[in-house]
ATP-dependent DNA helicase (Diplogelasinospora grovesii), 480 residues
Amino acid sequence: MPFLIDPPLPDIQFTLRRQFKKRRFRPHQQDIIIAALGRKDVFVQAATSFGKSLCFQLPAVIDRGITIVVSPLLSLMLNQVQALRKANVDARTLNSNTAMAERDYIYQDLATGHPLTRLLYVTPELCSGDRFRNKLKLVHEQKELARIVVDEAHCISEWGHDFRKDFKRLSWFRETFPDVPIMCLTATANAQVRQDILSTLGLDKTAYQLKTFTMTSFRPNLHLEIRFTSDEANDRYGDFVSWVKGVYERRAQQPRKAELDRLKQRVDNVPGIIYTISRAECEAIASALRRDGLGARPFHAKLPNDVKEETLAKFITNEPGYDIIVATTAFGMGIDKNNVRFVVHWRMPKSFEGYYQEVGRAGRDGKASYCFLYYSREDRDRIASMVVRNAPKDDGGNNNRQARLESMTRLVNYCEDTRTCRHAAITKYFGEAEVPDCDYACDWHKDPQELRERMQEGLASEEWVSTQRQEGRFDGYCSD
Ligand SMILES: Nc1ncnc2c1ncn2[C@@H]1O[C@H](COP(=O)(O)OP(=O)(O)OP(=O)(O)O)[C@@H](O)[C@H]1O
């Protein structure tokens, strides 16, 4: 077992201020950190933008030894490593893109048994390899393996929307290092997914040493709205452009303009993300918006890495021409820009959790932000056929197919529901008993009657959609 320390509270506060440059903890962060430093296994479920990363980064800085962070996305690892290195924390990442020299350095560092690296971000695939496993055994023998962190832990569960089968193999950690604490974190787990995470990682066998923190998924500053449309109306583009230009016009009026000038902010620097389903649509919307004088850029998996990095960097630093990112889900989990003022779903996402994750990119500074989703019944059928076709067919395939269909169906119900607060529907989905206190932050609270009328007028009839479906009109749709 690694060397134990029992840091007094002032050390934790000091590290928060000195290393992480934060003035105070957000609610619950300190309790989670104390549980981790007390060598408990920890399960954290909290809303998007809660500040989950700090809950393992701060203990990693205080504790002796190395913390291994398993994360599913390369971009997410890179963001976190860059931020930590800026804060003078020796954080690194080992993945398929790591340069040879850095890879050699990391393996040599691990081979000493006393690594200097504080946090090492790795992919689940890497954790299955003998080379990495043998090095970790060495570090463990030297009592220098402080903690294993599984970020985006819902990827473990085949009942989750984002199941990755290499996450299942993370059971190796508890089997091999029973004395090393494990922390897992997610924003999107229902009861079944939570149970799956705990049993896969072996944490349910020693429940007495597990501390569970489940916080609300409610994000009060997100204004949620569904905009109803149909293939025939085909009005998304015009609707969006007039909405965003309206926002710019309001910002151009006094006294707002004088205030923006004082803050050295452009009228059109209203950062936002538009999520699309396909790469072709993503490119087409971005170029159309640019032709209309808006600063929009595409972001999808097939773009060269340097273009993606430049786009992300310029979006984050509010460069002119990079105000709106039109993205596929490649631009999803973990993007942490604090002033994203809107998230638009051009089409319905494939899962409820995906929707929650994506709107969660907005308003991370706590200020009001606008999220609307263009919903059509034709898209519903296209996406359903896509979900069925793309569900994994190997390990866990059947359960996962069922889970994905269920999640998509729940999102359809959410979109067509005109009798419930949107925030209440979300918290209910994640199993919360308490109804959140939505302060007119959804279309139902703003005007339930208007919502019903908009739906009635906006959607194609079920009869029409079903005829189209029988003719196979929605079958060949694919995303990338
Ligand atoms: N105590 C704090 N004080 C001020 N800012 C904080 C604090 N804790 C975290 N933050 C900031 O909040 C933002 C969100 O944190 P983080 O990226 O860890 O969120 P998250 O919970 O992982 O969200 P998601 O699930 O959406 O990725 C970051 O910019 C982080 O620096």
Residues 22, 25-26, 29, 46, 48-54, 187, 334, 336, 338, 360, 364 surround adenosine-5'-triphosphate (CB under 6 Å). The chain has a mean pLDDT of 91.
